[in-house]
């Protein structure tokens, strides 16, 4: 069989390969994260007085179990703002204390970790590094992109420009000018050097965490953690099942699949 026509057709379409690679990149979660962080950076530089607010981006800090990566840290005499960025589209459902939030695009629903819980480790790492209390460090989540909140959310979960208003709403002076400068110096000296190696090591650490959590179950109704329970009576006595940890508030169950 003569494959020459096929090879010629492939060669004629070679220029489409970079196009498809480009499409795959811009649709990736990595690229969306980069764009989200860029938007937050630009807004901060335009809307926040650089003499009053100091922006530090992409900060990787060492922790007891590896590393944690903070999207943005904004330092002022009104406190240290630890900012987590989310570039997610669709309707967003969630409350302050829910472990999992829901993203809905038309009829499709997807669960993701409560970003406030995700940012909690960042905040505690920063507090430990700087020896600051809860009044001096603020957790802040910023959603960018085509997303809309469909449930009541805390003031420190914002959309777009809302995070600037939240930062400017903090008017109490909790750091002196000297302390502000010391905080900036400590973060800069305490962070890991920005490099491909640092990024790879952090990504590997995140993958390990994800792998550890892969076997965890979350309630399909409320998003809370599911726990293993045993049937106490009846024909199925002794069998295991997943039950919602908030029982009896939520009575959702999942049939247990043994490993």
Describe this structure in words.
- The chain has helices at residues 4-12, 16-26, 29-47, 115-130, 162-169, 177-190, 196-213, and strands spanning 54-63, 66-76, 79-87, 90-93, 100-105, 108-113, 137-144, 147-149, 157-159, 226-230, 240-244, 253-255.
- By secondary structure, it is an alpha/beta fold.
- The protein folds into 2 domains: 21-213, no CATH class; 215-259, no CATH class.
- A hairpin with a 2-residue loop joins strand 1 (54-63) and strand 2.
- The radius of gyration is 23 Å and the shape is globular.
Question: Which helices and strands occur, and which strands form pairs?
Answer:
Elements: H1 4-12, H2 16-26, H3 29-47, E1 54-63, E2 66-76, E3 79-87, E4 90-93, E5 100-105, E6 108-113, H4 115-130, E7 137-144, E8 147-149, E9 157-159, H5 162-169, H6 177-190, H7 196-213, E10 226-230, E11 240-244, E12 253-255
Parallel strand pairs: 3-7, 4-8, 7-9
Antiparallel strand pairs: 1-2, 2-3, 4-5, 5-6, 10-11, 11-12
The helix/strand class is alpha/beta
What is the terminal separation in angstroms? 49 Å
The rounded Rg comes to 23 Å
**If strands are numbered along the chain, what order do they take across the biggest sheet?**
1-2-3-7-9
Which percent bin holds the helix content? 25-40%
Strand content: 25-35%
- Mean pLDDT figure: 78
The best one-word shape is globular
The largest sheet, given as strand count, sense and whether it forms a barrel, is: 5 strands, mixed
What is the ordering of alpha helices and beta strands? HHHEEEEEEHEEEHHHEEE
